[in-house]
Write a structure and sequence with these properties.
The structure is a single chain. It is built from 10 helices and 14 strands. The protein is an alpha/beta fold and 308 residues long. It has 2 domains: 219 residues, P-loop containing nucleotide triphosphate hydrolases (Rossmann fold), CATH 3.40.50.300; 80 residues, Alpha-Beta Plaits. A 6-stranded mixed beta sheet has the order 6-7-8-3-9-10, with helices on both faces. Strands 2-1-4-5 form a 4-stranded antiparallel beta sheet. A 4-stranded antiparallel beta sheet has the order 12-13-11-14, with no helix packed on it. A hairpin with a 4-residue loop joins strand 12 and strand 13. Helix 3 packs parallel to helix 5.
Length: 308
Amino acid sequence: MQPIISVKRLTKTYASGFHALKGIDLDIHRGDIFALLGPNGAGKTTLINIICGIVNPSEGSVTADGHDVVRDYRAARSRIGLVPQELSTDAFETVWDTVSFSRGIFGKAPHPAHIEKVLRDLSLWDKRNSRIRELSGGMKRRVMIAKALSHEPSILFLDEPTAGVDVELRRDMWKMVRGLRDSGVTIILTTHYIEEAEEMADRIGVINKGEIILVEDKSVLMQKLGKKQLKLHLQHPLSRIPEELAGRELALAADGNELIYTFDAQSEQTGIADLLRQLGEHGIDFKDLQSSQSSLEDIFVNLVRAQP
């Protein structure tokens, strides 16, 4: 299947000489929720701005739904809805007027039924006649999403969509994003909330220092790179790990009351049985044990740290 967004050898060098993007290659599949992760200054916003036609690339090409974002800008941009991180809209306009106006910017004929559906889906219908300045921060965020959806795009960029909103509203927005994906819209999400990507995304991309260092299905990524830990709650605290066990991936925690063993869950030999035998030989008893899988946050931090 042809990707809905295709980025080839994309480079961006600013007048100052700063290399924001360095030969990016990236395909995003139609109908995916794609999470783009990276530390501050990694190049996320520059990449989004180029795909959306806001910034021109230095080299390379980008197509959005089959249209080159430079040569065929209007057609490409009409396929894209963008929700920027910053809240920027006319404070004195009503919700209905500002969303309807956004549709007109893209040359679309008035479609009140579509605007009504968008506002209802975002729980904004009761606020349709309210001025933007009268809304809470969370409601203003919803209006930004409504504006981005007003012209019926096939691609939606959400740049930090839940920044500054409470947990309840964040979960409401996750539900809304899933509904959009189910209706055929491709979602590209940037977020500082790693649990948001873990909860939402079908595929994960990690960008750092202007380079894509990984693109993978979330489930495959968790299997490939996720470590498991076995935490043993000891009967009696240890002051140190016995030398005979020093070669293992063991760590003491909780003032010596917990022994943590890290292992590869995909390996045929996890070493757990051998570890428990050795602990018994050294008279180290435990009263409870539990296992846990590495989170996406652990994986992300390790990937970024490992890049030279």
